[in-house]
């Protein structure tokens, strides 16, 4: 007997009883989630400090406020999102009612990663609740303090018959995935994404996969390079680089590189002081395994800025590498840490070729004071999202969808896109029962009459 079969059946029974469907119910659970965020903010801060040494400001903006914005947006728009969407009819259906019903899927599974362990569980959960589903959440075991907080405290805020938390790692998730779900929402790396999709395929369960990759960042010669350096350094070193949409590497000319390096050095010193290890505003690497992986990645290039490490603290200084080998692991795998390689290219065309020769990333960034250059990169590349003259900020706008393409994922969410992701768009046609004579045109036996001749 599967250890989670009983739990899944309990949620399915609540789903079949229609418990999560009424708007008032959905709103009450969202409000309860809001109370969790307000009342347990200190515990959330403490858990993230213990797991990642995450600075308070970063917790505030990238975990708490982001969830609250999603929550308030869902609460304000729930009634309009839930309304049937009436559509145009043709001549034959003029007297009928044709609409799209936003039906909940049923029992949903949400699996999260460790880098933004609160936001990346709660934002999908908000969408799934708003859409009227029952949900099992599986936070990452790597960010163990947040996992504990979510498992021990969150259930006391929510309806236990409809929402549950499962803890654990590979073994537990594998067992959980043997059960039939109606939707699976996964955030994590691309190789695990394949495992999730294969497990979902056994039950023909639809999936959203929010994955990772290497996000290129092209910098043209014509920029204010201090402005570029501030925005790139912020995006790369926020949460010590453990961000799925962080710029993974810079592409620029040799000449730009020489000017960008002192600007990056200036930005890093302004942000974190002369010794970032002493800064309260710089996070740590989540685990020893990740620390060792990142330390090894540094061998792929020459350190131009930073490079210091402290294994005891899992500290890696904000680091910029130059002269990187394109075949080294640093240019082959997602870095996911505070290391920024700079790769030189002759011009924007070469940068575009470089990007297109690799997997489609979650984000492409381009910096230029010339809109034509931004548009050229936008038009000639493909990625989940695009940021012109900044990094990361495109994911903060609730009116924009967020998701990957190809190797960086499939599906999208945030704001109304979350509601739509967790809703089955059901085709509904309610026919007029009169004028049966007209219907005879489609009934057999087929003769010239059927063709209206
Ligand atoms: P991960 O894929 O290792 O783990 C994610 C979740 O999957 C965890 O809950 C984990 O317990 C579970 N898991 C791991 N291995 C599994 C297996 N073999 N079978 C079943 N379940 C398994 O990812 P991570 O290391 O936690 O997160 C980092 C990755 O996530 C990076 O690649 C990053 O780019 C990506 N990410 C993407 C987004 C996005 O929105 N697209 C956001 C954050 C992180």
From TrEMBL:
The active site is at residues 210, 244. This is Aldehyde dehydrogenase. GO terms for molecular function: 3-chloroallyl aldehyde dehydrogenase activity; aldehyde dehydrogenase (NAD+) activity. GO terms for biological process: aldehyde metabolic process. Transmembrane segments: none annotated. It comes from the Eukaryota. CDD domains: ALDH_F3AB (cd07132). PROSITE patterns: ALDEHYDE_DEHYDR_CYS, ALDEHYDE_DEHYDR_GLU. Keywords: NAD, Oxidoreductase. GO terms for cellular component: cytoplasm. Gene3D superfamilies: Aldehyde Dehydrogenase, Chain A, domain 1, Aldehyde Dehydrogenase, Chain A, domain 2. InterPro entries: Ald_DH/histidinol_DH, Ald_DH_C, Ald_DH_CS_CYS, Ald_DH_CS_GLU, Ald_DH_N, Aldehyde_DH_dom, Aldehyde_DH_NAD(P). Residues 19-426 form the Aldehyde dehydrogenase domain. Belongs to the aldehyde dehydrogenase family.
